[in-house]
Amino acid sequence: MDMTTHTLITIAWELHEQGLPKTHIAQRLGKHRETIILWIQGIEHYGLLGFLERYDHAKKVPRVHRQVDPILKRWIWEIREREYDCCGQKIAYFLEEEHRVSLSVPKIYEILKEKLIIKNRWNKNVVRGPVPTASHPQEVIQMDPIDFGDLFAFTAVEISSKEADILITPALTGSFEYQFLKQCMERRLHTHVSLIQTDGGPEFKEEFQDHVRDYCDLHRISRPYRKNEQSYIESFNRTVRKECLGWIKYHHDQLPICTTMVESFLDRYHYHRPHMGNNMQPPLSRKETDCRISTEN
C-alpha cells in the first residue's frame, strides 16, 4: 500500500483529535464523509498502528466476487423478453411473484447488461412543466389517437388508477372519437369524471365536442408542443406500440385482427401487468371489477 493513504489516515485522526468535524475533515482531505467515519471508528477500536496494519492486510487479500446463480440469470432474461423488454422494477416484481426471489433493481440491470445493451433514457434535469393531477381515482382522463396507417387507435387512460381503453377505427374523425368516448366511459369507468383532456386535433371536434360534457365537468385542450401535459397518455401509447401493435402500418382489412390484439392486450394490461405508478400492482383485479359491476347492476 502506498504512503499517501497512510498519511491521509494519520492526518484525519490528528484533525479529529483537534475537534474538527468529520464533514470538514472529509472536505479538506477530498474523501467521502463515510470513509472518514470508518477510519476514525477503526482507529478508536484498534489504535492508529493497529488499524493501519489491518487496513494493509485487507487491501492485500483478493476480494471474492459473488456468483449469481445461472438459473436466476435465465429467469431474468426470460422475463425481460416475455414482458416486452420491461424495466428492472417489473422484473423484480415477477421474480417475487413467480419464483419467490427478491433481487435489487441495480443487480437486475447488472445481469441484463451481460446480454443486452441497456440505455438510460431518464434525465432528471429536464424541465417537464405542469401536468394534470388527480386527488382520487376516476377524476382525470387523458385521450389521444395513434396513427397506424389505414387504421387508427383512439386511446384513453385514467391518470390515477391507470385504467385504460382503446378503440381501433378506420378513420380519424370526431364521430369515431365520440364512439370511443362513449365506449370508454360506459365500459371502463362507469362514472362522470371531473376532467377530460385532449390535444387540439380535429378528431376532438364535431360530435366529440357536442357530447364530451355529458361525461365530464370540464374538457381541457392541452397546449401545443407541450407533450408533458399529455404525459400519461403518451406513456400509455408507447406501451401500446411496444407491447401490442408495434410501429408498423396496418390496412383496413386488418381491423378485426387489430381489435382482437387490442382486447387481449387490455386484459393483460389491466389484470397481469404491474404498473410502477400503482406500487407495482396491475390497474385492476378481477375480483374488484366483478364487485364493481355487480354493485352497479
From TrEMBL:
Cited InterPro entries: Homeodomain-like_sf, Integrase_cat-core, RNaseH-like_sf, RNaseH_sf
PROSITE patterns: INTEGRASE (PS50994)
Pfam family, any one: rve_3
Gene3D superfamilies: Ribonuclease H-like superfamily/Ribonuclease H
Biased composition annotated in UniProt, kind: Basic and acidic residues: 285-297
Biological process according to GO: DNA integration
Gene Ontology molecular-function annotations: nucleic acid binding
Top-level lineage group: Bacteria
Integrase catalytic domain sequence ranges: 133-290
Chain intervals for the UniProt region annotation (Disordered): 276-297
Protein name: Integrase catalytic domain-containing protein
